[in-house]
Amino acid sequence: MQIPIFTQNPTRPVEIGDKSVSELMDAMQYTGFQGRKLAESVKAWENMLKEEKVTIFMGLSGAMVPAGMRKTITYLIEKRLIDCLVSTGANVFHDCHEALGLKHYVGSHMANDEELFEHGVDRIYDVFAYEEEFRNTDHFIAEFAKKHDGRHYSSREFIHLLGKEISEKGDKQSIISSAYRHNVPIFIPALCDSSIGIGLTIARRMGCNVNIDQIKDVDEITRMVELSEKTGVVYVGGGVPKNFIQQTEVVASIMGHDVAGHEYAIQYTTDVPHWGGLSGCTFDEAVSWGKIAKEAKKIQVFVDATIALPIVTHALHEKTKHVKRNIPSFTWDAGVAEICFETL
Amino acid sequence: MQIPIFTQNPTRPVEIGDKSVSELMDAMQYTGFQGRKLAESVKAWENMLKEEKVTIFMGLSGAMVPAGMRKTITYLIEKRLIDCLVSTGANVFHDCHEALGLKHYVGSHMANDEELFEHGVDRIYDVFAYEEEFRNTDHFIAEFAKKHDGRHYSSREFIHLLGKEISEKGDKQSIISSAYRHNVPIFIPALCDSSIGIGLTIARRMGCNVNIDQIKDVDEITRMVELSEKTGVVYVGGGVPKNFIQQTEVVASIMGHDVAGHEYAIQYTTDVPHWGGLSGCTFDEAVSWGKIAKEAKKIQVFVDATIALPIVTHALHEKTKHVKRNIPSFTWDAGVAEICFETL
Amino acid sequence: MQIPIFTQNPTRPVEIGDKSVSELMDAMQYTGFQGRKLAESVKAWENMLKEEKVTIFMGLSGAMVPAGMRKTITYLIEKRLIDCLVSTGANVFHDCHEALGLKHYVGSHMANDEELFEHGVDRIYDVFAYEEEFRNTDHFIAEFAKKHDGRHYSSREFIHLLGKEISEKGDKQSIISSAYRHNVPIFIPALCDSSIGIGLTIARRMGCNVNIDQIKDVDEITRMVELSEKTGVVYVGGGVPKNFIQQTEVVASIMGHDVAGHEYAIQYTTDVPHWGGLSGCTFDEAVSWGKIAKEAKKIQVFVDATIALPIVTHALHEKTKHVKRNIPSFTWDAGVAEICFETL
Amino acid sequence: MQIPIFTQNPTRPVEIGDKSVSELMDAMQYTGFQGRKLAESVKAWENMLKEEKVTIFMGLSGAMVPAGMRKTITYLIEKRLIDCLVSTGANVFHDCHEALGLKHYVGSHMANDEELFEHGVDRIYDVFAYEEEFRNTDHFIAEFAKKHDGRHYSSREFIHLLGKEISEKGDKQSIISSAYRHNVPIFIPALCDSSIGIGLTIARRMGCNVNIDQIKDVDEITRMVELSEKTGVVYVGGGVPKNFIQQTEVVASIMGHDVAGHEYAIQYTTDVPHWGGLSGCTFDEAVSWGKIAKEAKKIQVFVDATIALPIVTHALHEKTKHVKRNIPSFTWDAGVAEICFETL
């Protein structure tokens, strides 16, 4: 009987010694379980960056900014390891909050919540924040919205303008000001399901009629996919950001475009497939829908993103210092999007 | 030393015998772990139904309709075990799909996804559907949207009209037609992040300008909370529906209303607190934010909703047959909401 | 194109109404996700009971007795829904504890553990016990062991004698006295990793030389498999009990027996496959090892056992009242086992 | 109102740049969620190594050796980052397997298990092995056991002798030969629940009467705790190894020793508290039992060990190069243990 090909490659126990972060990731490629998957995700992302004309979409969920991931996301945008960000509203709200000089605090997941409430402290697992300071940021959003009374925006347009405002205040480190300066679109499909929505609702009740057009969001991001030669996706968690990016392939297909599914797919998740939800489903399930190409490189890593993001980004930092990437650049003119490529 | 009060009540091993579903739940109240929590959730829900003037909000996430939970949700609406539903778009899309006579199928989570794709079959864990039939429903939504060209709706208004349409087609079993007939509002905060959004985008690209106003959603549901004497929440999963209901307390508080947090809180979840996300966070964490009252009865059950929903609803069916509930009824007139109570 | 066979069977939304527990389980067979799996596990277990000459092994881990599952396990033994139990030591220790009239208590998972420690209260998630009462049971085990000084037993033999002792004290409800009376062998492969081990160590330090021979355990349970025509397994959790039963197929095969893997396989688990452990691995993975027959009916349900056990057992109670099962009965004589079948 | 002390320390977004593994871990201490916990575990372990006269026990479960963690464990033993190892039998079996020159292979978690079975390939999630090669190692164990016919050992003694045998064959990299050479005791409380048990059972059926005395295991490890001034624990996963080390505090206390619980406690786990099991329970729960000191530094990290172990060990490698640790050394003479300290 012929020895099947799947058993030619022995696992290689990781040798402990002086290694850089990317060398450690390289070594972990020959281990097993999620350690190997984490290493494979670095490799897949690196390959995606080296390939010609791939547009990279990142979905971002979870309270990543309070948990100290803000500059990591900013780095991904500035160094163009991603080309488009789809986020929960919370992350962008918290990014504004820090851009305004306010803070999140190292707390404890064992704190007494009644006591915290009495002190006006909000808990996000083991991170704390002041409710009063959050309300300050709510009102900043409300005031910003009021400047746009009567306007009608996709979330991308609204966040672009908010990024411009933050940028003009001198901030250089925030996610949205970096995205503004580097022309990386940010979509927030469920914008009002967040404190940004709270700010917008305060403005609305004061009579301001800015309008966030969620259908325009679907239209715009789908146009990005339709214009792209290839697409890759990196999901931090699941939720709306994952589904919103996944469904672009279905919309584009219905619209008659010859799309074949995303061609690179990486997810860092703590959800699992067997509850039947989109957040935890395998990329193989997505193949049945045509959302992911059947030939795609698909890496799903079961790990908390606060572990994965810093490690993976540091490894990519080492690996891509000298990579000249061919980045897609999108422009919109009256709803019509265009793409061009430039070398970073 | 005084014997502390927490050790007076022995666990009681469940006796196996002839028991109805609700009797079994009663027996499980004296066990431990999630079996006890499931039983406690039945008790808490029953108590909430017996209390005067509580408005009950349900958050619904996960592919519950494909997984056979459609008539369970319809039952909760018709018998008014809930007063307001906040859902993902997918569940309402799938509800429409079945209302149109199309089906979801008993499949297998072990199927070959490339083969399914070739046969035009979409997989949702162990449930199958035909992509072509889904597209039929997408186009139904698009055609429906085109009838409302130029209109501007909250998702509640849009789903209300869609429920009317489905109801007039003669359907009596769907979630949205039941909600229409029983005046139970349904909000879908991230409406376009679903196949309903796909339908709306098809319509948009054909030039239809129906607009879904997500700020209006926040405004409307917050008014419901502001008008209610007490509120209770039941979350099936987490995601946007949970956060959207939770944040009403914050919005109402900022608006100067004297709200104290939801007073009953039940969640069926498969997420966990330690990833720091809102979906899995404890109700205690929510106390720090003022979203849940510190005195609230708080039951979080770690279980797949496809197990919990049928069992809990059957138990409540037995327990509440003869309960005359005082139900809140909401009417909207030009954005101004009113509440009245009637006995069911 | 031929419609593939996997899409002929629509999901059937569960209708809420008057249903017994087993009728509810029957209805849930046509849903999806873990609700369906729970229902399928009832069906598979029922089928296993109706088949001729199947020996059913149950693996039991987790603190099931403190959590109120004691009489459920006793029922499974008395009604012979299982033929052999492999357990953690803790469950049998806690069973003795309750047989001695001592209790576990309904507690809270939010208790202050430092305070509990000061009051001598041990916490098992939301169940409490008195440390002093546990030590009473430790000493009962030590005294029992001392009566067997110089003897050399498999864990099965030791627990059989302990069950006899408890039975002779008049107890009729405990797991081990029922197992003794109904000739159902109980193995505890890691006996000393539990408070029974604590009791045995107390005895040892007092000079008692009772010896628990774990190699004999492997030998004896493997002989049961070798003598059985067919075998089925039901795992409550994973851990040592699951692996210990799984590995019997490998041992029997090495010994030259023509075994083909267990032919029914049910697991209730909260673990998942992707951490690479035996507790959470799929039964498909077990097929690669020859531990599970490739044709076996394999149902893995992701659910807390304190939810699954009472529900499944009540459903089986209704379904098997009139089933006359052909039960295997094992006898040992000087290490040589024999099997005979009798109708219950 | 006084600003409460818990909000003085802002989270610090990780800056991406050139960092060593330990510098990255240091930076992650000021983030949130499990990323912070991972960093805190490095800090706690480092502190434990710097403290005088702490005996460090490691519990090791999961298929860590097939997953490429073998040399990591060997490193921990050789550099004396641990003083005692409690393991599943599987890890030591797989360690022998590799010591004999046999391999585990990089496989796929998506493989067809029926096909693997036909090719004699065993799957451990995404790692493969040849069944025939495993049987070779089973027989090696059986032959080794036969050399010790009539002897009576604790698992520590048996593994010590096995390590000596492997060491004398020239192996320098295996866990057990390193442990032998560096006098680090290894306990395997459920030795026969593994392929080592299979080997022992083969020997037994050939008439060999080597005996593994599990009561002696409890006695010996408890003596180590009784002799130690302080103890710390590091758990990789849960299972028997965690419980076995935890219960030493209870046994020692019953024996009249003035123990106060382990004083450092680190766990890398993928289990969770709410299923009520010992594997996933918090260290706070363990405080109620007196197993962990209430003042102990307690860090539980929810992460796959194949991610945590290489990263944490590399960080410790960088941090402890110049640390002279005061290591405890244990000797046994006829069941009486002694401790002395030496500087590494």
How would you describe this protein?
The structure is a homotetramer of 344-residue chains. In chain A, 44% of the residues lie in helices and 20% in strands. With 344 residues, the first copy, chain A, is α/β, with parallel strands linked by helices. Chain A has one domain (5-343): 3-Layer(aba) Sandwich (Deoxyhypusine Synthase). The first copy, chain A, has a 6-stranded parallel sheet with strand order 7-2-1-9-10-11, sandwiched between helices. A 3-stranded antiparallel sheet of chain A has the order 3-5-4. In chain A, strands 6-8 form a two-stranded parallel sheet. In chain A, helix 3 (70-78) links the parallel strand 1 (54-60) and strand 2. In chain A, helix 2 crosses helix 13 (305-319) and helix 7 crosses helix 8 (175-181). Chain A is globular and about 70 Å long. Chain A starts with 20 loop residues before the first helix and ends with a strand. The mean pLDDT of chain A is 95. At the A-D interface, helix 1, helix 2, helix 3, strand 3 and strand 5 of A face helix 1, helix 2, helix 3, strand 3 and strand 5 of D.
Write the layout of secondary structure elements.
The structure is a homotetramer of 344-residue chains.
Chain A: H1 21-28, H2 33-50, E1 54-60, H3 70-78, E2 84-87, H4 89-99, E3 105-106, H5 113-118, E4 121-124, E5 127-130, H6 131-146, E6 152-153, H7 155-168, H8 175-181, E7 186-187, H9 195-205, E8 211-212, H10 214-227, E9 230-236, H11 239-254, E10 262-269, H12 283-289, E11 292-302, H13 305-319, E12 326-333, E13 336-343
Parallel strand pairs in A: 1-2, 1-9, 2-7, 6-8, 9-10, 10-11
Antiparallel strand pairs in A: 3-5, 4-5, 12-13
Helix pairs in contact in A: 1-2, 1-13, 2-13, 3-8, 6-9, 7-8, 10-11
